[in-house]
Amino acid sequence: MGFLTGLLDLLYPPRCIFCRTLLKKGERAVCGKCRNELPYTQNGGAQSGDFFSVCVAPMYYEGAVRESILRYKFKEATGYAKTYGELVAGCIRDNLNGRYDLISWVPLSSRRYKERGYDQAMLLALAAALELGDVAVSTLEKHRDVARQSSMGSAEKRKANISGVYHVTDPELIDSKRILLIDDIVTTGSTLSECARVLLESGAREVLCAAIARSRD
Ligand SMILES: [Zn+2]
Fold first, then answer.
1. pTM above 0.85, yes or no
2. Which of 127, 137, 169, 205 has its CA 20 to 30 A from that of 121?
């Protein structure tokens, strides 16, 4: 352990990224209790959507997982990306091995990116790809902001809310490719469906998805 790391640990003792308890010696990022008791999905909790063939996620979006992801998205807890990336990569390795050609992510709009200072799905995709010995590349752009999906209610409203806001940046890059699209959470799947629709329309062969967490049906 370097001097600086030691000093930082004294000033900011490392806490579990899920339940925030202080970590014991030898624990890294996640406490022993959470490692054992997080709401893990079975077989990646695989679900399909309108335009993507499958979406996998290692955990359910509830309790400490939900709290953790909210800190990651809105409270600048960007350091969580590495551990999330490891969890997502494990889930991809177990469930989607050999089924995709290219890793990408669901982007923020440039306005939201400027406000927040980081794109949480991009950080996650980069971390997961690194863990898989791969790279993640940008394929989509979000042209305008819409009301937050979580405030929209029904699936129909969510669908209408985001229709037409994503565009493919480089159709040649995705031509005939099987794209693995990464987002932070998946609830109704309407955002992933819209992104998948746009990718397919621009020439992608298939779209598969992965997230940190999904809602229970
Ligand atoms: Zn914990």
1. yes
2. 205
The three state secondary structure string of the chain is CCHHHHHHHHHCCCECCCCCCECCCCCCCCCHHHHHHCCECCHHHCECCCCCCEEECCEECCHHHHHHHHHHHHCCCHHHHHHHHHHHHHHHHHHCCCCCCEEEECCCEHHHHHHHCCCHHHHHHHHHHHHCCCCECCCEEECCCCCCHHHCCCHHHHHHHHCCCEEECCHHHHCCCEEEEEEEEECCCHHHHHHHHHHHHCCCCEEEEEEEEECCC
Q: How many Å lie between the centroid of ligand 1 and the Cα of residue 58?
A: 16
Asked whether the predicted pLDDT for residue 23 surpasses 80, the reply is yes
What is the reported pLDDT for 9? Answer: 67
CA of residue 78 to ligand 1 center, whole Å: 17
Whether residue 140 has pLDDT greater than 90:
yes
- Over the stretch 62-77, which tens digit does the pLDDT of each residue have? 999 999 999 999 988 8
**CA–centroid distance, residue 20 to ligand 1 (Å):** 6
What pLDDT was estimated at residue 149? 67
Angle at 34 between CA 131 and CA 214, to 5 degrees: 65
Percentage of the chain with pLDDT > 70?
93
Q: What is the CATH number of domain 38-214?
A: 3.40.50.2020
* Cα of 36 from ligand 1 centre, angstroms: 9
Q: What does the pLDDT read at residue 87?
A: 98
